[in-house]
Amino acid sequence: MSATMTSDDTARRFREAALPHLDAAYTLARYLLRDPNEAEDAVQECYMRALRHFDTLRGTEVKPWLLAILRNVCRVEFGRRARVVLYDVNADNDDADTAAPVWQEAQETPEAEMLRKLDAETIRRMVAELPEAFREVIVLREFEDLSYQEIAKVIDTPLGTVMSRLARGRAMLREAWLKATGESAQQQQIRTGNYKEQIQ
To answer: Are 94 and 160 a contacting pair, CB within 8 Å?
Structure first.
């Protein structure tokens, strides 16, 4: 009876801690696997594993912990099934890109203002077309609002790598956004008033 009560208590605490992050888990899985059915299966497997190990969780935020489990499930269990093509992050240097961020930055930018004019479907399509290494950090940062440190824990990568991948991912989004809006970089500079400053 004591074991049953303990098990029930664990299940209750797990539901309270983990269920609020169900949408976040599904969002990440959908972007990693690019298949809604596979994403649902991956989230279910993630939550089953998380429940089994919930009592071992110590001093860690639940959301990054859950998303780290989910990422492993997607890459190991479902990656082969979905034939996810993983981007070779060692093919290029992870030096930080200096391109302006696209959205949700502390300082407002022309890119941030103009991106909001695009519909949600266009944004989702652009993010979905990013290589996997950049897609996952963009989803974790911009959609799920994880800190750089939390993302580093989720993907088990040094903080500097997280920051450089975010910068490069945002640069890729910026280029995709410029194509989607039919603007060249020079046209954007002229419209935002930056071009005049650059030629002076």
So the answer is: yes
